[in-house]
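Summary of Year 1 activities. Much of the first year was spent building the evaluation harness for sequence design. The harness presents a backbone, in tokenized form, and records the residue chosen at every position. We chose the following record to illustrate the format because it has been used consistently in internal testing since the harness was completed.
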């Protein structure tokens, strides 16, 4: 098994699927992680050299078992894209504290579990990539995002700590801030009055993640912001 291996968490109908397709097209064996078997199995049939794995990344035991299986079946991962996300809307007075904790387990602890599992082999090899998909909630706390923004801010800071530690060891770590509404069926329905330029295409996000793994090590990016050309920021 000579092809590189990429682990992608949170493989859903939007960004996750686009990431899987982009890395498969780039020659990777793709390990696709999610909690929806039907969605994963359909993508597995579509993409050669990809494999679906049911995994809740907030569960450290499941992460360990899944990575053991990936290494046996596909090989040792040389890239990780943490795209799994837990979100909720509501002010701090309204949200269920358990929801905030659950989102933290997916967004931040899930990253920790995955990165701790794949990073040692990357360090030994002297190369590798860890990419995290985030959004502007990692940079600002709006009232209605109290159940989500704190977890993304923690995720970004964890990613930065990892980047500072792993960079000198040859492992590139980057955080993608997505300042846009992702173009998927449910967002099109919710924002049906918005023009096409309001949305960001999942394939475009995937292209940027791919680009980050191709950067020369003399010019690595860490914090990358993506937004549609018409976005008011």
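For this record, the design step produced the sequence shown next.
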């Amino acid at each position: 098994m000579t092809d590189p291996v990429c682990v992608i968490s949170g493989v859903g109908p939007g960004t996750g699927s686009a990431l899987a397709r982009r890395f498969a097209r780039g020659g990777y064996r793709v390990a696709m992680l999610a909690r929806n078997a039907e969605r994963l199995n359909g993508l597995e049939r579509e993409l050669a050299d990809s494999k679906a794995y049911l995994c809740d990344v907030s569960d450290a035991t499941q992460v360990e078992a899944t990575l053991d299986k990936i290494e046996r079946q596909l090989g040792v991962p040389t890239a990780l894209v943490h795209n799994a996300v837990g979100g909720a809307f509501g002010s701090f007075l309204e949200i269920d504290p358990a929801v905030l904790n659950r989102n933290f387990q997916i967004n931040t602890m899930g990253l920790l579990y995955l990165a701790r599992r794949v990073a040692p082999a990357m360090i030994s090899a002297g190369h590798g990539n860890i990419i995290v998909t985030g959004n502007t909630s990692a940079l600002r706390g709006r009232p209605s995002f109290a159940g989500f923004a704190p977890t993304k801010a923690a995720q970004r800071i964890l990613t930065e700590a990892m980047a500072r530690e792993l960079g000198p060891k040859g492992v590139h770590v980057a955080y993608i801030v997505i300042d846009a509404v992702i173009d998927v069926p449910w967002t099109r329905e919710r924002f049906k009055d918005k023009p096409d330029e309001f949305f960001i295409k999942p394939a475009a996000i995937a292209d940027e993640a791919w680009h980050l793994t191709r950067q020369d090590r003399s010019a690595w990016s860490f914090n990358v912001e993506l937004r549609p050309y018409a976005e008011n920021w």
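The mean pLDDT is 95. Quantitative recovery figures across the full test set are reported in Table 2.
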